[in-house]
Amino acid sequence: MRKLGSLFLLAGLIFLGWFAFELYSQHKAEQQSLTEAQARIGEKASSEGFSAKQGEAFATLEIPKLERTLPIVEGADPDSLDAGVGHLPETALPGQDEQIVLSGHRDTVFRNFDQLEIGDALIVEMPYGTFTYEIAYTEIVPEDDTSVIRKMGEEVLVVSTCYPFHFIGNAPERFVIYAYPLEDEA
């Protein structure tokens, strides 16, 4: 019986060590992406023809209420989402008068998203300007609902993450924020 207890203790320690390593690795990747994004912003570019390569950190998302500034990385694949907030490449960028879709993990970059409310600001800083959006409404959709990605005919910042926020495992739904431009400080 003692051997079984020791085996469970060892397994628990290995699991905790793995979890700590993953958390540390993700934090390091996010910090590196933030440094890269801030450098890209500092380069100052024109909005005409601006683009980013897959996996490149090119902008930041500031969430004043949560006191967080996060890197925005081109792509919504697992590697991009591990490095920061992912920008869905087939959607617009700020200032292009169409839907901009950003996604992130609820337990990393979008931790504490349950504290956001209608009227809170989201600020995207690009190499060609700063764009402030106000949260207008939110919705919860099934995880496989892709109807939120669509032409909207106006500039809308759509931010999505897994839901419920404190769910263990693969969450069955997505929490989606719709935010509209307040001002263009470009």
Question: What does this molecule look like?
Answer:
With 186 residues, the protein is an alpha+beta fold. The protein has one domain (2-184): Sortase, Chain: A. It contains 2 helices and 8 strands; from the N terminus they run αββαββββββ. Strands 1-2-3-4-7-8-6-5 form an 8-stranded mixed beta barrel. It is globular, with a radius of gyration of 18 Å. The protein starts with a helix and ends with a strand. InterPro entries: Sortase, Sortase_D, Sortase_D_1, Sortase_dom-sf.
The overall strand count is 8
General shape: globular
Give the terminus-to-terminus CA distance. Answer: 68 Å
Q: Could you say what the CATH topology is called?
A: Sortase, Chain: A
Order of helices and strands: HEEHEEEEEE
SSE topology sketch:
Layout: H1 2-42, E1 57-63, E2 68-74, H2 78-83, E3 85-87, E4 99-103, E5 121-126, E6 129-142, E7 156-163, E8 173-184
Parallel strand pairs: 2-3, 4-7
Antiparallel strand pairs: 1-2, 1-5, 3-4, 5-6, 6-8, 7-8
What is the structure about, briefly put?
This protein has 186 residues and is an alpha+beta fold. The protein has helices spanning 2-42, 78-83; strands spanning 57-63, 68-74, 85-87, 99-103, 121-126, 129-142, 156-163, 173-184.
